[in-house]
Structures are given as C-alpha cells and as structure tokens.
Amino acid sequence: MVIQQNEMEVAALSDKYASGAAWMNGEVIPIGEASIPVNDWGLIHSDITYDVVPVWNGGFFRIQDYLDRFFESMKALRLDPKMTRGKIQEVLTEMVSISGFRNSYVSMVCSRGLPRVSGSRDPRDCANYFYSWCVPYIHVIKPDIEVIGASALIAESVKRIPDNSINPIVKNYHWGDFTVGLFEAKDSSYETVILTDQDGNITEGPGFNIFAIRNGTLITPKSGVLSGISRKTVLEIAEGLGIRTEIRNIKKTELLRTDEVFISTSGGGVIPIAKVNEQIFSDGQCGAVTLEIRKTYWTWMNSPAYRTEIFYKN
Amino acid sequence: MVIQQNEMEVAALSDKYASGAAWMNGEVIPIGEASIPVNDWGLIHSDITYDVVPVWNGGFFRIQDYLDRFFESMKALRLDPKMTRGKIQEVLTEMVSISGFRNSYVSMVCSRGLPRVSGSRDPRDCANYFYSWCVPYIHVIKPDIEVIGASALIAESVKRIPDNSINPIVKNYHWGDFTVGLFEAKDSSYETVILTDQDGNITEGPGFNIFAIRNGTLITPKSGVLSGISRKTVLEIAEGLGIRTEIRNIKKTELLRTDEVFISTSGGGVIPIAKVNEQIFSDGQCGAVTLEIRKTYWTWMNSPAYRTEIFYKN
Q1: Cβ of B161 under 8 Å from any chain A Cβ?
Q2: DSSP secondary-structure letter at A287?
Q3: Which domains does chain A have, with CATH numbers?
Q4: ipTM value of the model?
Q5: Residues near A60 by Cβ (< 8 Å), separated by ≥ 6?
Q6: I need a labelling partner for B223 at 20 to 30 A (CA). Which of A26, A181, A282, A285 fits?
Q7: pTM for the whole structure
Q8: Chain B within 8 Å of A76 (Cβ-Cβ)?
Q9: Closest chain B CA to residue A112
Q10: What is the mean pLDDT of residues A143-154?
C-alpha cells in the first residue's frame, strides 16, 4: 500500500521553513511572518476565496483542476488580483520548492483587500490581493484513523448555510456552521461532523465531501456541497471500476441505512467512515468498495497522468 | 443640529496613528502594522467574533452595552481570550487615548487563533486571541447622504444566511451574503442593500438594522437580525417619545407601503432611507418621525447618561 505516511514525509530541509512558507508581495517568507491586515475585507467581511492543491511525493496533484476552480471562484466573487494563471502556478511552484516540502497542503488565496478610496464601503473600490502559503500535508482525519475508519456525527444543532445565501461551489471561509457542528461532534467524542441542509438532506463536512455505497451503487449529495476535486476524482475512479454512481439528495435516514460511508478530501484522499451517529458500518472497518476506491486514489496520486513534478532547490 | 461632522472631527495628533491604532499583545501600534496570521482560524474558518463601540466627541457611547454583547458573543462561540471585562475596557480606552481620535470606530475582536497542538482540527485545541483596533469614525452611509436620505435595494440575487446556520445575534464576519447583495445594489446605483430571509421577510443590511414607520407606529424585524445597540437605542427613544413599536416580521411588499424607512447603526446613528427599490419615501427626504428620532439619538450620543469620557494624553 502506498499510504506509508511516515516513510514518505520528508521534513523541510531548512529550519526557516519547517512550519511552512508563504508567498506575499513577490517574496517567499516563513509562514510565521505571513499575515494580513486586521481590517482587510477578506477578514472583516470574509470576502475572500481560496483553493488548496495537494503536493504528494514532490509533485502537485491535478493542479490544473485546482487552478480552474480557483479562477472560477474569483470570477464568481468578482475578485481580480491582476495575476495570470501561469504566474500563480509559477508562484506556487517556487514557494513549495523553496519550502522543501515533498508532501504539502498548498493554499492559494485572493482577498478583497482594502479600499483604495478612504472610507469607502463599496467592494468595487478595493485592491484585491493574492497570496499563497504552504504547510506540511494536512490530514482532515488523523493518519492512524484514516486507515481504520473515522466516526462522524450528523449535527442536530446547526444546518448547512444554504446555496442561495453562500454559494458552496465558490470555495470560501464561511465555516461558522461547521464550527458549531464540530463542537457538537467533538463533545460527543466523534472525530468529525456532517451537516444537513434546511430540508434534512446530507450535505458535506468541514473540508470534505461525503459518499455512501448502497447495494453496490456509489451515492453522493447533489446540492449544498463544494465541487471537490477529490470528489471528481472519486467519481472518475468509480466509473473506471464499473461502479454505478448517483449524484442526488440523500436524507439522513437513508445514509444510516447504506452499506459503506466514506469522505473525500485533498487532506487525506478517500477516508472510510466506520461510524455515523450510533450506526456502525462494515463492522467498524474500511468497507470493500471503499478500500478499492482508496487504493486507486493513491495510485492516481502517484501517477504521472495527474501529476506536475516540482524541481526542488533543496 | 449636532451632526456637524466636519467641525467635530479632530485629526489624530500624531501622524503615526493618523490612519488608526491597534492593541495587540499588550502594545498599542499603528494600524498599518496590525495583522493576523494567514492561517489563524479567525480568518480561514471565519471563527471569530467582534464588536464595535463608537467614540463620539471624546467619549464612548454605551460602552457597557457593547461589552455585554461582546462577552455574550464570545460565550456563544466558546471563545475565551483569558481577559476580564475590566481589562478589555482599559485596553480600548488606552488605545483610543493614544490614537487621539475624538470620533472613532473602535473594534474589539476575539479570534479562535491557532491550534496549540500541531495539526489539530479541533477548535477546542486553539489558543483564542484578543486584539483591538480603532480608526476615524466610519460612516456606513456617506455623511452628505446621511442627512438627506440614502437609497437601498432589496436584493433579489441572495438571501440572508438563516439563523439556524449562523446566529445573527452573535456578531460575526460572515458577510458573503451582504457582499453579493452590495454588488447588486451598487451596480444599480443604490447606496446600500437590504436582504430578505428564505421566507421573504426583511432582515438587515451590511452593518445596520432597519426600521419603518407606518401610520405612526415604528416597526422593526424580529428575526434574522443582530440585536443592535443602536437598534435598542432607537426603541428606547421611541418609547420616550410615546411612539408605538412593533418587533415582528415585515414582508418586502409591506415595507414598500410604509410611510418612512430608516436604518440604525453605530456608524452614523439614525439614517433616513429616502428610496427603497423604485419607491420614494417622504418626498425623497428625511421623514418627520425619523427626524425626531434622529435628533434625539444625537442628543443621547452627547449625553453624560450614556457616555464614558476618555482622558486623552494628546
């Protein structure tokens, strides 16, 4: 199996970038020095978009897909950092190369910034601001639990923000609903949380999409969710494996009656969920179909077809 | 009238703080140097709360009410910066005093911060972080328009985030819905935007509560809104003036049929809205009832009963 995390993780060669690196205003700096103004609208109005491309074994995974989505998000929010796609890819590559990280969570961000006109309350007056940062690969679920299967609670205390308030396809930092749900889950000793929408349909969790296997068919929610690149990868893998897929609404009661549940995320790939609420799936282990998709996912992560290798200076 | 903005605004005595000041980690610094880490959860999860107390003519207005609300917000989000209420008031006072601002927008903020445990995805592991900043008094509506009446568009493209996703009583930076609405309004040359909820009820706008006068009765929305201190002030003023008040749902169609509309905000007080969508109110001027409430509001802003004077070092 290719998921020998400890073997593959290579520490940053320089102490300077051990915790992470950032690209800001044309320079690569240690992450501890990377900050944004306390009155930037990206912070005070959460008027900001981002994307995260994983680096694995020294190469970006599907970076063109991530850049596509990042540019679509910026367009939807009418953000324009005056940087070309080629320049942004160059910046990400340079930053990761200098950091030395072979496995990394690489974030690209565009914020509304600050108004060019003093006192303006008009978002059209702001100078939009691009920056980027990378840290050692982030696991949405701890690596030891990733293999055996995590537990998730379907939140009762909060509903996912609806699509007509915040468009979930535009990757955003509006995580207040997830945070309330995470507290509910963590207080009951679940690893993570799943949110439902106003109509009781399963949506997504903090940083991941959700899948279920029922009678051999792969099901994933249609609305209230990010169009995850890992989700897209899972759907393509399923197609290749001849697994029937359905993208549609799933009620909580149906999810609890399925055979296998897993999540997809750039921060860990395909991760089995062995328990949802009180319900145990696949005898509390990774289900057979999930395992097959998971294996293929890691094969793809290491496949030249999906990778863009990074030339490291260190 | 007490709203002679230009006469009352006194520039910061020192160039150093002309744009603003901040209090961070025990020190008062120029606002241009005040920033938070790019990976602070206050930014990347908008896991943060804030409050804004106005300083007018060298004194805080109703600072105890603002501190009450700030502590309630922190409690609701399970944020604890390990600072007493007295200490926070002391910090705000010291910062404004050093800034020299006699009229100021004074922001107090508590962010989730960064995890104490590397790689943790659990909000309970974070070191919560308090900071504060102040800038010259912010006008939600430009001062020249504040007097004659602003225009507002009821957004069609977006709905206010529901209370069961993000609790609006907890003052928050989840402004993505307002931002979409603001673009819609500004593109059609309206000064600001009003959002409706999923059921078509009027809620609030970016930084203000909404009121209407109908047949002499003051009406303001019940749900989907912040419990504004300025809103509370308006309700108390109305009571003092013998104006009947109703806190209840208002449909868009009803709002457009009322006699006067105004907004309340710490950033400008009571501001007439002379036009909503295509509908003109009070012949495009400040209505008579609004004007009476507005006058009283500014009397209160200057009244010792509601003020806490600041001792300025400059």
Answers
A1: yes
A2: -
A3: 5-137 (3.30.470.10), 143-301 (3.20.10.10)
A4: 0.94
A5: A53, A54, A66, A92, A93, A96, A106, A307, A308, A310
A6: A181
A7: 0.94
A8: no
A9: B179
A10: 93
